[in-house]
Design a protein that fits this description.
- The chain is of the alpha+beta class.
- It is 17% helix and 23% strand.
- Strands 11, 12, 13, 14, 15, 16, 17 and 18 form an eight-stranded antiparallel β-sheet that branches. The chain has a six-stranded antiparallel β-sheet with strand order 1-10-9-4-3-2, with no helix packed on it. A four-stranded antiparallel β-sheet has the order 5-6-7-8, with no helix packed on it.
- It contains nine helices and 18 strands.
- The structure holds FE2/S2 (inorganic) cluster and fe (ii) ion.
- The site of fe (ii) ion (FE2) has 6 residues, from helix 4.
């Protein structure tokens, strides 16, 4: 059970909170590179509860900084992005992407003190079509996380962003809650209706899978298993990786390079950022699941309908289906069991469920079951790391050694290996596809 104090420590991400401090030790995927045009309009961007603006200067460099002008706190969102920097429209002070004050035209040359003024700017890199922001105070920022997918050529990496209106933790936990799949997503599917080699067969054959859970170098991991014929086991491996990443089992393990971030916008909004290898076998690249007769399984549709982006702090990458329209739940489909949930689309089903818990789940109201041990363990892992950082200055996992994320992979496979579950994982990982430029380092 999670106490009120633990709940607060886990879910609050503002500056000075223990989880906020932990998150500030990692790079955050924050926006698509395509959202920022050279000398284009500045964009409101909220991260970890801080109101920022992002802009791309005349040379193509991206700046991410506190939206308040250091002079009298007018919002630089209103500013003019021109000639190598952003100029506040109140008194004309101008800043470059690093926050240096370049010009102070409202004071006489004798009184000019621009060299003493610095806007609060964060470090930025671009990779995989994304703008990444480092909000830590460390002098040297770490390299980006070493996920395999980030080592692939840029044009082979798919990226999608979707805002979710709830705290990052409950959004993230939806991904490592393995026992919901056979209900929320596939409760209406009978095993004898789907092909034995299909994506959902094993899930609907046994809706109460057994699974192992353990702490790992990068966070936590589970391996769910079901018998799959004589001497064979069907495995689904998934992971949580610090500080907000999940690697879901929604693809064939061997080529399933992907990573899914649940980046806190503030305590009650999250930006889901999904990176996947376009040539891997995942739920994005494989055909939608179908019944034996070839007809599509209800509710398993892909693709999301978005509202147009606005300039609001919370205006980017919102789905058209939301609490205000009951996530477009179709009671008739629910009643006649063509879609167990009545909601079309796997992503939307997860979105609806986690948003329905409220902006921040009241954890003291929960009754966690033995089948929730991955969730319990992940909460403890996060909490212990955040407290160790606060109390003893211990760097959290992967913050200073992002290479360790290269040993994380998730997905499903059938194996006849009879060793421990960790041995099964290590064997499958060694045989999997990896970025050729970077040989796999064995996990310690
Ligand atoms: S408030 Fe920005 S220049 Fe004065
Ligand atoms: Fe789900």
């Amino acid at each position: 059970m999670t106490t009120e104090r633990e709940s607060r420590e886990l879910t609050q991400v503002g500056a000075g909170t223990i989880m906020g401090d932990l998150m500030r030790r990692y790079w955050l995927p924050a926006a698509k590179s395509s959202e920022l045009e050279r000398d284009g309009a500045p964009m409101r961007l909220m991260l970890l509860g801080e109101k920022l603006i992002a802009f791309r200067d005349s040379a193509g460099r991206v700046g991410v900084m506190d939206h308040r002008c250091p002079h009298r706190c007018a919002s630089l969102f209103l500013g003019r992005n021109e000639e190598g920097g952003i100029r506040c429209i109140y008194h004309g002070w101008k800043y470059d992407v690093e926050g240096n004050c370049l010009d102070m035209p409202s004071v006489t040359p004798q009184q000019d003190f621009k060299h003493k003024v610095k806007a609060k700017a964060y470090r930025v890199v671009e990779r995989a079509g994304l703008v990444w922001v480092y909000m830590g105070a460390e002098r040297v920022a770490p390299p980006l996380p070493g996920f395999d997918v980030l080592q692939m050529p840029e044009d082979e990496i798919g990226v999608s962003l979707i805002q979710r209106d709830c705290n990052y933790l409950q959004a993230l936990e939806g991904e490592i809650d393995t026992s919901h799949f056979g209900f929320l997503h596939a409760g209406h599917v009978d095993a004898d209706e789907v092909p034995e080699d299909g994506q959902v067969y094993h899930t609907v054959t046994n809706r109460t899978p057994e699974y192992h859970v353990a702490d790992t170098l990068w966070g936590t991991q589970y391996g769910a298993y079901r018998p799959a014929g004589p001497g064979q086991t069907y495995w689904r491996f998934a992971s949580f990786a610090f500080p907000f990443w999940t690697l879901a089992p929604n693809g064939e393990f061997a080529s399933h390079m992907h990573a899914r971030a649940w980046v806190p916008i503030d305590d009650s909004h999250t930006m889901f950022c999904y990176l996947w290898w376009k040539r891997g076998m995942s739920s994005i690249t494989m055909p939608t699941p179908a019944y034996k007769d070839g007809s599509p399984i209800g509710g398993a549709g892909r693709g999301s309908k978005f509202l147009p982006n606005t300039t609001d702090w919370l205006g980017r990458w919102r789905l058209a289906a939301n609490e205000g329209n009951d996530w477009t739940l179709d009671r008739e489909a629910q009643r006649n069991n063509t879609i167990y949930s009545g909601i079309e689309g796997i992503h939307l089903q997860d979105q609806a469920i986690t948003e329905s818990m409220g902006p921040v789940t009241d954890h003291t109201f929960e009754h966690l079951a033995p089948s929730d041990q991955m969730i319990t363990r992940t909460r403890r892992r996060l909490l212990m790391a955040a407290r160790a950082l606060r109390e003893k200055g211990v760097a959290p996992p992967g913050a200073e050694d992002p290479d360790l994320f290269r040993s994380v992979r998730s997905g499903y496979f059938v194996s006849d290996h009879q060793g421990s579950w960790q041995e099964v994982y290590a064997k499958q990982l060694a045989a999997a596809v990896h970025p050729s430029s970077a040989p796999l380092r064995a996990a310690e």
